[in-house]
Amino acid sequence: MDALKDTKQLGQMIRAARKNQGLTQEQLAATCGTGVRFIRELEHGKESCQIGKAMMVVKMLGMEILIDGSTS
After folding, report:
1. What are the two backbone dihedrals, phi and then psi, of residue 50, each rounded to the nearest 5 degrees?
2. Whose CB among 11, 25, 61, 65 lies 3.0–4.6 Å from 17's, allowing a Cys bridge?
3. For residue 49, what pLDDT is reported?
4. What digits encode the pLDDT tens for the residues 40-54?
5. CATH architecture for residues 7-60
6. How do the domains of the chain map onto residue ranges?
7. How far apart are CA 44 and CA 38, in angstroms?
8. Is the pLDDT score of 1 beyond 80?
9. HEC profile for the chain?
C-alpha cells in the first residue's frame, strides 16, 4: 500500500487507475457526473479541488483512501 504524501501523488494514482481501466478523462467525468476539467485538475494535483468530488472519483475507480492514525 502506498502512503499518500500530497495532492500531486493522489492525482498520479487516480490517473494510473483510470488508465489501467482503459478509461478516458471524458469517460471518467461522465461516469462521475463531473466535468472533464475537474478530472484534469485532479490528476494534476490541484490543491483546491473539492474533496467530496475527489472522493467520489476515487470510489468510482474502485480505490479507497485509508487513514492510519498511528504516528510511526
Report:
1. -70, 125
2. 61
3. 82
4. 999 999 998 899 999
5. Orthogonal Bundle (1.10)
6. 7-60
7. 10
8. no
9. CCCCCCHHHHHHHHHHHHHHCCCCHHHHHHHHCCCHHHHHHHHCCCCCCCHHHHHHHHHHCCCCCCCCCCCC
